[in-house]
């Protein structure tokens, strides 16, 4: 299987999002996802519409949105409208929710609520009605796209969420980590869910979420993405550490990061309150080893190839650094050619 590469765009402005998606398309990214956090960044679907008009090839879609801030009919209509602008290169990524809901004082829905929401979206994107919360809902105009509906991707970390993704999603964004043991566990749980639905792993578009930074000073590279690793510690282990291969010596340190995490400063650049939570050198090193691709272009390529050997071939990178354009260019021109095939 050929390697494919994507990046998450945090729309700190509409103009920067357009500039970055044009650059990502030019240097060879296959997909640019847009983060959804209405209290911190520009509006998701307005940004996607602008990005669709600025590009021709790259896949676009939320990475990811949530089932709380938009009614499923509103969500379906929004992504189908982007599809009308961009054509079939559109996907819809959805998870239980993070900064978008925490900044509203809300809590994530459980898996039953997420399943119901996704099943509603599947019906609506096929032009069908759906009984949602005891009320019949519809998006009648989307029937014109029913023969080729927007695919739904789930963001998943824990065993049960991965199994749900394997059962009902068209694609999955795996956030449990990228070390070989974690990759094997991820694929195991996806396969369990797929089997429940009479599917195979090959039927699911599988992507690994990973933090990234490229350069010669590894310590400085990791230091620059401390806030990203804090965000990962907060999100990937938030409901439970059980079944997620967390070494016992890091269990309490991860809980301390989660307790101190401030959603209002989610993915802030520089020396942010969340970056300061990653003070423990041992925890920082562990999180980088498990969740990040960091180093020179050659070292990053070797890391990617090691993950591919474990069975995952597609990568969704964050890379929320000050010199973001430079990082995107370096990934596309110096890293990807070393490990594309």
Quick overview:
This protein has helices at 14-27, 44-54, 72-86, 99-102, 111-124, 159-168, 180-196, 218-224, 226-236, 248-260, 281-291, 297-309, 324-339, and strands spanning 4-9, 31-34, 59-62, 92-94, 130-132, 135-137, 152-156, 171-174, 205-214, 292-295, 314-317. With 341 residues, it is an alpha/beta fold.
General description of the model:
The chain is α/β, with parallel strands linked by helices and 341 residues long. The chain has a single domain, classed as Luciferase-like domain (TIM Barrel), CATH 3.20.20. It contains 13 helices and 11 strands. Strands 1, 2, 3, 4, 7, 8, 9, 10 and 11 form a 9-stranded parallel β-sheet that branches. Strand 8 (171-174), helix 7 (180-196) and strand 9 (205-214) form a beta-alpha-beta unit.
Fold-level CATH name: TIM Barrel
Class inferred from helices and paired strands: alpha/beta
- CATH-level-2 architecture: Alpha-Beta Barrel
Weakly predicted, low-confidence segments = none
Beta strand count: 11
Radius of gyration: 19 Å
Distance between the termini: 8 Å
Helix content: 40-55%
Q: What's the number of helices?
A: 13
Q: Name the CATH class.
A: Alpha Beta
